[in-house]
Amino acid sequence: MTTINQADNVAIPSSRWFFLLLLGILAIFCTQVAQGYFILCDRAVAEWVATLRSPGWDETVRTITFFGSSGWAWLALGGWGWWAWRRRAWPLALRVIGAFGLGLILEIALRLVVGQWRPDTLLVPAVMDWRTRFALAGFPSGHGYRSAFVFGWLMRRVSPSRWAKAIRWGSLAMIVLVGFSRLYLNRHWATDVIGSWLLACVALSLARRTG
Predict the structure, then answer these.
(1) b or e along 167-205 (b: 16 or more beta carbons within 10 Å of the residue's beta carbon)?
(2) Contact indicator for 179, 141 with CB cutoff of 8 Å
(3) Rounded Cα gap, residues 77 and 191, in angstroms
(4) What does the DSSP assignment read for 117-151?
(5) How far apart, in whole angstroms, are the C-alpha atoms of residue 96 and residue 85?
(6) 97 with 119: CB under 8 angstroms?
(7) Contact predicate 206/95, CB 8 Å
(8) Distance CA 108, CA 134 (A)
(9) What sign has the CA pseudo-torsion 127, 128, 129, 130?
(10) Residues ≥6 apart with Cβ < 8 Å to 74
C-alpha cells in the first residue's frame, strides 16, 4: 500500500506541471495571435488551400467537418458517459465531460478576448455586440477543439487489442482532417485550428488528472 501511495504522490505533481505547461503554451500562443504575429503565415496557408478546392470534394469535406460539430461531440461523449455509468464509472464520466465543458467555456472567452475574425468576415462587429463578435471570431476553432477532444480521448481510452493501433491512427487522422476541413471551407485560419488543438490538449490533460 505504501508503494502505491508513493507512486500517486509522484504522478500527481507530474501531471499538474504538464497541465500548467500546456496552459502556458496556449496563453503565449493566444497572445501572439492577438498581436498579429502570424497574419502573413495564415494568409499564405489560406492561399495554398484555395488552390486545392474543387467542387467534387466539397461534399466530402462537409461530411468530414461534421465530426467536429457540437451535435456529434455531445452524442459521442454522451454515449461514452452512458457506457461508463453502466459500468459504475460515472465519476470518471462526470470529470471528463466537465473538462470538456470547461474547455468550451475557455473557447468562448478566447474568442471574445483574442478577436481574430474568420477569413470570410466582411465587417467587424461593434465592440458591445458580444453575440455577433463570438459568431464571427474564429480563434480557436470550435470544430477543431471538439474533434480533438473526442478523438483524443478515444486514443487514450481504447483498450489494448489488435485494433488499438488502427483506432489510434484513425483518430489522429480524423483530428487532422477535421482541422483541414475548416481551412478548406474558408471558415478558419490555420492558427485558429492550431489554437483549438492546444485547447483540447489542455482540456484532455485536465481530464487525465481528474480521471
Answers:
(1) beeebeebbebbbbbbbbbebbbbbbbbbbbbbbbbbbb
(2) yes
(3) 26
(4) BPTT--SPPPTT-HHHHHHHB-SS-HHHHHHHHHH
(5) 12
(6) no
(7) no
(8) 7
(9) positive
(10) none
For residue 1 the three cell numbers come to 500500500
C-alpha–C-alpha distance, residues 16 and 14, integer Å: 5
Rounded Cα–Cα distance for residues 144 and 182 (Å)? 8
Cell 466537465, residue? Answer: 98
Instruction: List the Cα angle 45/188/110 in 5-degree steps.
Output: 120
pTM of the model: 0.86
pLDDT digits (tens, 9 = 90+) for 28-68: 999 999 999 999 999 999 999 999 999 989 999 999 999 99
